[in-house]
Design goal:
About 45% of the residues lie in helices and about 20% in strands. The protein is an alpha+beta fold.
Length: about 260
Amino acid sequence: MDDDDENDRYRAPALDKGLDILELLAGIDGGLTQAEIAKHMGRNANEFYRMLDRLVKRGYVTKIYGDRYSLTLKLFGLAQLHAPVRRLASYATPLMRELAEQSRQANQLVVFDRGSAVVIAQQEAPGYWGISIRVGSHISLYNTGSGHVLLAFRTPEERAMMIQEYEDEGEDVSELTPEFLSRLDQIRDRGYETMPSLQTAGVVNISAPIIGPDGKAIAALTIPYITIINMPNAPDISQTTQLLVKASQQVSKSIG
């Protein structure tokens, strides 16, 4: 029996259909009608009526504007009940708030979870200006400071497993080169990553690891640094890096 046959052996079509709907709606602003959902999935609209009705009654989906279906926050709430993530965020939040006040910059906490780098906590900048990213966002392992740090502070064997899971999620691994792996070693030696954002012009991502008791990164703390022209007394990028590294060390210590 090949892998495809083995994977199909225990298929649950109704469950697959419900999960397909949730994943589709997660990427859509403004919701979709039943007909639009069916069109996205290449199926008949009548196939989804009962499933949508159950998702609405269970509170995962709601109807907006009369006939459009949209996700509620129930999935987000369930994710927050996941004890290790909730505990890490609770330890980090006060220190993230203090870091934002000292640096005058936003910051975020990112973990690796089942093939994805995921933002689990976000602290806004205290002033008018700052770069933020939504909690729950999935970001790249290869072209973000957070991703680099999550990979750098792991063993080569663990890196390989993380990269395989990332590839299994359908992500592009074309940037995985000997030069990239060498960069990860340099980050580990330096203790943090600094790199221009490849998503937003004018932003420099500064990332440092949250280290667990085993000496490996369990999360990355990142500041998307911007130069604030009308705040001349704000810490410069060098000072901000020092503040970030200190905060990451404090979070690491607090979790034990």
